[in-house]
Amino acid sequence: MSQHVVVAMSGGVDSSVSAALLKEQGYDVTGVSLQLYDPVAKTPGCRVKTCCSLDDVMDAGRVAKRLDIPFEVIDMRAEFKKLVIDYFIAGYAAGCTPNPCIRCNDLIKFDLLLNKAKEMGADLLATGHYARTEEGDSGRKWLLTGLDPAKDQSYFLFTLSQEQLRHVVFPVGMLEKLYVRKLAAEFKLPVAQKRESQEICFIPDNDYVKFLEDHGVAQRPGEIVTNDGVVVGCHSGVHRYTIGQRKGLGVAWKHPLHVVALDTEFNRVVVGACSELARQCLTARNATWSNIPLSGDFRAACRIRYRHEPAPCRVIMRESNRFEVHFDNPQTSVTPGQAAVLYDGDRVLGGGWIE
After folding, report:
1. pLDDT in tens, 114-140
2. Are residues 29 and 99 in the same domain?
3. Is residue 63 part of a domain?
């Protein structure tokens, strides 16, 4: 009897090809799409999202019909609002830059949806992420980077536990994106030419400032200051700025200025030269480990944002859920609220949230 796999179908190319490959390999495949947020009106000329919208759910349904597999839509709007959207808003209000995609993977896809898949009698949950898993010598699972370095999404999956890793599969993780596109055309999938989205799915027109203010984050005017306290301008809300930002500061200065810190206690945006963005170390909290909890000091490579090249470092464990990263070379734009993910080659060791 073939294994039953539930495929999380977002309506994009990657999850659609994942479903097609699994069916071709003889699995009993069921497609599932999640309704995560209510659609919003778009202004004329603005780009339409291509992730998790109602149009994407419809695209996923068309792919399921083409593949002749069962298809179900699950309403998780209430859960998504509470666990992802509210977290996003609270993070910006506190002067952090949250990562809603990691949060969604952690609490929605690989928790709530995985449990739902088990209730449906599924052996596995599949997604279109560019990542891989392998079994180690001890029988425990490792999370690995995707084969295509330009598309690797292991950064977004560092929270996966052993229990979750035993029940997930990433069918396109061993493939390059161009080949996945080719497969979509060969399978005659209706999304074969669909473009990708690099934006936050629930933010209309990618205008996160308007979204935050529409959802209760107040404009609180304050000072823009240098690290030594010189007032160089004013702002209308700390939530309008991110670490490393250079454009849109509205400050004339003798050299280009970047946002180097957000001080919510005194409602200040701290700016400085590009060199002031460099950090030799960081501290991360709420750590999770892909294989076994680590202890003591060890060498690793640390990625501090999705497109960041993992940087060689020394890691010092403070508690099982908190660690320090000491980079061999200073790294720019270390941002509170983002994830610090640790690697040993192509293996994900674990990670935590930058303080």
Report:
1. 999 999 999 999 999 999 999 988 889
2. yes
3. yes
